[in-house]
Amino acid sequence: MLGKLIGSINKERALVYLVAREAGYAREIARFFDVPLNPIQKALDGLERAGVLVSRVIGSTREYRLNPATACGMSSEHWSKRHSRCIPNDCARSF
After folding, report:
1. Cα separations in angstroms, 92 against 17, 69, 74, 83
2. I need a surface site. Which of 1, 12, 83, 85 has the fewest CB within 10 A?
3. In which element (H, E) is residue 57 found?
């Protein structure tokens, strides 16, 4: 649904996951959607370069979150409540 808008189904998956869970890492997202790791890593990297996400390294894992500056100062909880209608129904049941 959002894939055409943002250019990639994997970017959509990453955003849906992070909106619902607030934070996550590439392998976790790939496992959740049962997709290969590499495309999710590339999607997360692209979203971070675009300023949509921020990340931090915890040990050897990079954790991603929505960039609070991009979300117009809204908390991820407020953002997700406001935009939950954008989450595809087949994914919403999993959260």
Report:
1. 10, 25, 21, 12
2. 85
3. strand 53-58
Nearest partner of 44 among 33, 84, 77, 92, judged by Cα: 33
pTM summary value: 0.72
Please, are residues 62 and 56 in contact by the beta-carbon 8 Å criterion?
yes
What's 3-92's CATH class? mainly alpha
* Residues 36-59 pLDDT 10s: 999 999 999 999 998 999 999 999
On whether the CB atoms of residues 95 and 20 are closer than 8 A, the answer is: yes
Listed in sequence order, the residues at least 6 apart from 83 whose beta carbon sits closer than 8 Å to its beta carbon are 19
